[in-house]
User: Fold this.
Amino acid sequence: MSDLEAPLRPKRKKVWVDYFVQFRWILVIFVVLPISFTLYFLTYLGDVKSEMKSYKQRQKEHDENVKKVVKRLKERNPSKDGLVCTARKPWIAVGMRNVDYKRARHFEVDLSAFRNILEIDKERMIARVEPLVNMGQISRASVPMNLSLAVVAELDDLTVGGLINGYGIEGSSHIYGLFSDTVVAYEIVLADGQVVRATKDNEYSDLFYAIPWSQGTLGLLVSAEIKLIPIKEYMRLTYKPVVGNLKELAQAYMDSFAPRDGDQDNPEKVPDFVETMIYNSTEGVMMTGRYASKEEAKKKGNVINNVGWWFKPWFYQHAQTALKKGEFVEYIPTREYYHRHTRCLYWEGKLILPFADQWWFRFLLGWMMPPKVSLLKATQGEAIRNYYHEMHVIQDMLVPLYKVGDALEWVHQEMEVYPLWLCPHRLFKLPVKTMVYPEPGFEHQHKQGDTSYAQMYTDVGVYYSPGPVLRGEVFDGADAVRRMEDWLIENRGFQPQYAVSELSEKKFWRMFDGDLYEHCRKKYGAVGTFMSVYYKSKKGRKTEKEVQEAEQAHLETAYAEAT
Assistant:
């Protein structure tokens, strides 16, 4: 057997859940899709209503809602009430974690009113938004002004709060870093009800750097000021097919945006957007985009592709055509490009509705796509939930750029999941060590993609059923994720905690750095008010006793053992 050949596995006997999952499309078409479309439409009407208000009115409502949050926090009795959580239902989150910590007794704070764009400041190039503003909402407001957030996560439903407290990336992250790196100020309600504005250079600078990846366990985010950039009406997208082994595909991906001469800050050599999809162990398509004006896009001979229309082929399948017809270029309206993966949820839509990519379905019902992830979670019972944990993978592996080839080979051998999504991002060298951080001394090694101030990483997106599952073979999903986490720890990688994690507390603090986080937990009174980030990310149900014991033991954390 060759090094890259997947191991042989015995056949798995089907159980009733397999058949339920196989025919779940019936529930999705007749229940989930209609309700999803209705919710999308009602949300859109709410966004329009919000946009009709003046910024002054929105700010007034914001101030009133912040006062309600402060009042609610001060009503809490620490000796009687549970730890603080938002009032959002466990299944509403877009991430794959089932928010099990909310099954324990907790003290709810309602943040549902915080969904307004408070201001788009063209002079400061800042968008001030509330945490439940989603990507579709902010791009709909800013793109007509030829402005955009520096990093716009692809799926419409992803919220500012989730992308800050958790994890957010896009094809522009090789320039601007992760979503949280584009934030210039946070408005936070602390455990004692104090409202503070944290920036990188004020008295709350430690809190500013600790907020990303903290999962909302340091305070309640009520607004953020986020960097805007000027944009143009179209994205000039080049599709370049590559054939070779996984190491060769990885090198072609690196070369698509990282000049070998190290000139990483040269806009003539580095595209505005980068994305690669690996379709199997020998084929991939590299995509690079540059903003283009309406005049350029409409020149004679140029191809304009409105990928946002409901009847259009799903984007990942459209990109795959480059493997047959060779390299090609087209122009896509900028906002439609930003949200190119929304209709098909990358390629997860193929598993949810196996025939939804067919032309007849796209034409007749494609306008209702996609089903809301929250409704998919709400309509699955415990058995289906466990089935997906075992037979399905939704994980992101954040690895140094020079390790991408190794990561691709590992995924092929251990999971055999395709397509794979590759998206580069910078990890900046900051004044303090945050939960995720570049490798020590990277700036002296001059590896491809790195600069003196940032190390280039890549998100290897692993989303689909593994090959053994599709072939009806035995596959242990939980064990595969544990092995993936061990590989990431050994190779200086990170696992975003929106996904299902199998990490023990000791391994969690080997993967992430907890010094600054623990410092801010104690300094700002989060201990005893908000649960720790590990406990919030931990897989499985949480009892009230577990919550209390975890908080009481915080001074003797596994992080201390690991250091």
Summary: The mean pLDDT is 90.
